[in-house]
Design a protein that fits this description.
This protein is α/β, with parallel strands linked by helices. The chain contains 14 helices and 9 strands.
């Protein structure tokens, strides 16, 4: 068996987090350590007594940080520093393995090709997710696996280094070689790293057979704020995102979503689609131009307000 750790940044965990821990314990590929980096201990204690949690999960390690200390890149780097395993899996506390073979399947691409530095899982919608959210998951995470290289940027654009730390595995030696995630990132620490991975000549595997249950039903305002931060990250790292416009991929999603809801016989959802898409685009547009906005407005628009401290 391969030595692998799972690292999970946690904030205000729910029962899904406990379900995640149970399924990690039941994996066909055993997990050596589950490393939890929790933001704000009081919220963690509201869910479960930490002593009881450590008693139940013998391979669990919990570290607490303050909200002011949290950062998308730096916090994950801290979690990685607590691991000595040659492979590790990054997850979020609201992603639940679809089955007991998640870790096994995530690691398979590394064994097939030593140039693979990152492997990420398919995200399936939660039961009860709306039609539009379910289609968005299928659009971004299809059922066909693939391996991507720098050459794919010519035809795939941003999709060539699209990847998600909701559930992604990494080879530790390559991660260390590339100096890990970029510290102080508002968003997209996974894609920023993935781009550097491709530029260094390594490969990214999308392993569709490895799946987690994970989706969001954001309000229009939630979509605005999330995409504002997306635009900010694209503006902050032009060396990663410049010349590969995200708008075209967004437009393709809107067009395909329209066709999908019509095929499903629910044309009234087109209004909701345009409403949500308008908020997404406006958020992204303003995020890309955050430097022209007053600081108070930038913080009000952002989902990750601690970033601006």
């Amino acid at each position: 068996m391969i030595d692998v750790d799972v690292i999970i940044p946690v904030y205000r965990p729910t029962e899904e987090f406990l379900c995640l821990l149970d399924l990690l314990e039941a994996q066909t590929q055993p997990v050596h350590h589950i490393i939890v980096v929790n933001t704000e201990k009081k919220y963690f204690d509201e869910l479960i007594n930490e002593t009881d949690l450590r008693t139940k999960y013998k391979n669990l390690e919990v570290r607490h940080i303050s909200k002011a200390e949290f950062d998308h890149g730096k916090t994950r780097n801290y979690g990685v520093s607590l691991s000595t395993a040659p492979y590790f899996v990054m997850m979020t506390d609201d992603a639940v393995p679809a089955d007991q073979r998640l870790v096994e399947r995530l690691l398979a691409p590394f064994l097939e090709n030593e140039r693979v530095g990152m492997s990420y899982a398919r995200q399936a919608p939660r039961p009860g997710s709306g039609l539009l959210e379910s289609y968005t998951r299928a659009f971004n995470y299809p059922r066909t696996a693939c391996v991507k290289s720098a050459e794919n940027m010519k035809d795939m654009g941003l999709k060539a280094f699209f990847a998600s730390n909701v559930c992604a595995a990494y080879r530790r030696d390559i991660f260390d070689e590339l100096k890990g995630f970029t510290d102080h990132t508002i968003f997209n620490e996974d894609m920023i790293y993935a781009r550097r991975l491709l530029d260094a000549g390594y490969l990214i595997a999308y392993e569709a057979g490895a799946a987690v249950i994970h989706s969001h039903n954001y309000s229009a305002l939630g979509q605005f704020r999330r995409n504002f931060d997306l635009g900010v990250s694209h503006a902050l790292y032009p060396e990663v995102f410049a010349g590969l416009p995200a708008e075209s991929e967004g437009l393709r999603l809107v067009k395909k979503s329209c066709v999908y809801v019509l095929k499903k016989g629910k044309p009234w959802l087109i209004g909701k689609l345009f409403w949500q898409s308008g908020f997404k685009y406006l958020g992204y547009f303003l995020g890309r131009r955050y430097g022209c906005l007053p600081g108070a407005l930038v913080k009000a628009f952002s989902m990750n307000k601690e970033f601006w401290r």
